[in-house]
Amino acid sequence: MRALHETLRADRSAFGLYDVACAAGERLARVMGSLAAEGGESADALLARLIREVGGDGGTLADAAVRRGLATAVRDVRARHPELDHALDTGTARGGIASDILCDLYRFFFAGLVAEFLRSVVAEHLKLAVPVLIAVDPEERIAGSVANTVLDWLPSPCERADAPPEPGPAADPSHEAPAALPEIAGSMVPEVVGLALGLTTEKTTGRKGAEA
User: Fold this and answer.
1) Of 84, 138, 151, 180, which shows the fewest CB atoms inside 10 Å?
2) What pTM value is reported for the model?
3) Distance CA 60, CA 13 (A)
4) Mean pLDDT across the chain
């Protein structure tokens, strides 16, 4: 992780990871709106939709990490929210997926993307250079540890949505109404990607995400 952070701080375009992560995050934010309204029919259908609408069709390591990050995000959000499986199984999820589940999906995705990217790069080198080390992590716990570490750095769109509004003239009719959750999630993408990739270590406050 330290090597990845140092590389990206020296050259943000390295691996194409920053741009790919931002583009995928913006697509995910848009999909969150329809998932909140329409829900899903099954876990498999949910993942298939995310892969189709968020995963893209690029062939780089970064593109592949996006798709694998989506898979791990769905897995992890189902583990944290068993009620999601129940809702999908009984059909009640077709009325929409709860905001707290969507916000966890959002955070799990970015954490999973970083973990999956590092696993792809490191695993290829380990297999070629030091194959004996593969036996040290047979259950791929290193990737899980990376994801958990990154997850701790990332703010939640739900927390940002619940934050007090920014100061402004309450009586001013031109004052903007609170943004919807997908809009908040979309505005936070540069901040969240910057935190996930180690380009910044400071979370911003308020509703607006800062450019990393």
Assistant:
1) 138
2) 0.83
3) 13
4) 83
